[in-house]
Amino acid sequence: MTTLGLIRHGSTYWNKEGRIQGHTDNSLDEEGLQQAAAIAERLSGEQWDFIYSSDLLRARQTAEVIATRLGIEITGLVPEIREMNGGLIEGTIESERVERWGHEWKSLELGLESFEAGLLRGSQAIKKIAGKHPGANILVVSHGAILRSTLKGLIPELDVSEFLKNTSITRITQAEDVWSCEFYNSVEHLNF
Question: Which of 11, 42, 69, 138 suits 49 as a labelling partner, its CA being 20 to 30 A distant?
């Protein structure tokens, strides 16, 4: 059985402002670094063999904190698990989107990557990572929207309607070709 811990990156200033990040390469804020340290401490009591990260800075910084605490090297940066492309809405908050495109902005073609495209991209990337390390325990640090899409691609019956919190971990397993979710969006380590 292969086990994967899917982790959303720590918080950024844009998270706090409600700005769409997408492919914009933002760094963690101070709280994000504290959150990364907290998930790293939680994971230090478990056995993890490999750690992969999105190539975007906020995920990479989170993975670096975890890797340092666990005493393992980051195995690879994977562009296929970077956040969903936010198109023209990247860098904006809701009121700015309404001002620019009106209340029906969600129905317009603004260059956003579709849920389906993210589902395909993310689930293929996770299958490829798992295929490289059968039977291993693998951490993957990525982003909220792409992780939810990815999970839906791997486990179609899984309810992914709840947004993933910063540094939440979702643990999934693969036994032969069957994917299962042990837990979703766990943030017990943030009780500080």
Answer: 11
